């Protein structure tokens, strides 16, 4: 299948590691011009070198961007446009909010989760849509969590904020459909990343068991009896955010091995 990505201008945020890095690598493998961002410049440089070496694509650049800083987001999009003339694909990604229950969370925790995991997506979309409308095409994929559809234990902030990403995705697909801008959300289930190790450690500490015990228990709850890997997740994202996707919009897809039981 031709994904029609060669030479396309792609932004992937929070791409220095984990799912963001896997998605950026997949786009680079398809010949896209990929701009990656995160807050950590040394990590970005390492990731840039890794992607170029793995894919042989030299058209990969980076910019330091704090997704809670509106000016950083404007500079991110401005760099993509100065480099490639437009933005064809936006992959919105940001680190997950901290684990915890209701009385663990302060007002500041709530504000930070809202700004990082919802408002930052609003801000990036606001910057790229004018270019997509002008060219009458574009793809946006918002990376979220399986908590878009089913709540997760000890992840109150994610359970509260991530459904907003699904709502934003559905609403904007309606608003910008006439401009041929396709907008979808993808939520990972249990994908083997540093974030999952972090959450598993929180659970292990709470239960007083080992990290391996938590992992084995989690794997047994997944119908496929294993964690997913970032490359599997990235393939779904890249298809939705590619020229091969011409009619899927407003959807919230889970890549979770069948874990979530919600319809």
Describe this protein's structure.
The protein contains eight helices and seven strands; from the N terminus they run βαβαβαβαβαβαααβ. It is an alpha/beta fold. It folds into two domains: about 200 residues, NAD(P)-binding Rossmann-like Domain (Rossmann fold), CATH 3.40.50; about 35 residues, no CATH class. Strand 5, helix 5 and strand 6 form a beta-alpha-beta unit. Helix 3 runs parallel beside helix 4 and helix 6 crosses helix 7. The longest helix is centred in the middle third of the chain and has 29 residues. The chain is globular and about 55 Å long. One of its GO terms (biological process) is bile acid metabolic process.
The N- and C-terminal alpha carbons lie at a distance of 29 Å
Could you state the oligomeric state of the chains shown? single chain
Q: Give the full name of the CATH homologous superfamily of the largest domain.
A: NAD(P)-binding Rossmann-like Domain
Q: Determine the CATH topology of the largest domain.
A: Rossmann fold
Helical percentage: 40-55%
* Structural class computed from helices and strand pairing: alpha/beta
CATH architecture identity of the largest domain:
3-Layer(aba) Sandwich
Number of structural units classed as domains: 2
Topology, number of strands: 7
Biggest beta sheet summary: 7 strands, parallel
Tell me, briefly, the overall form: globular
The DSSP helix count reads 8
| Strand content range | 5-15%
CATH class label of the largest domain: Alpha Beta
Radius of gyration: 18 Å
Enumerate the strands of the largest sheet in spatial order, edge to edge or round the barrel: 3-2-1-4-5-6-7
pLDDT averaged over residues: 97
- Low-confidence segments, given as residue ranges, are none
